[in-house]
Amino acid sequence: MSVISITHKIALKPNNKHITYFKKAFGCARFAYNWGLAKWKENYQLGIKTNHLQLKKEFNALKKSQFNFVYEVTKYATQQPFIHLNLAFNKFFRDLKKGLVSYPKFKKKREFQGSFYIGGDQIKIIQTANTDYLKIPNLPPIKLTEKLRFQGKIHNATITQKGDHFYVSISCDIDESEHKRTHKLQE
Question: What is the residue extent of each domain of the chain?
Answer without folding.
Answer: 3-15+112-182, 24-97
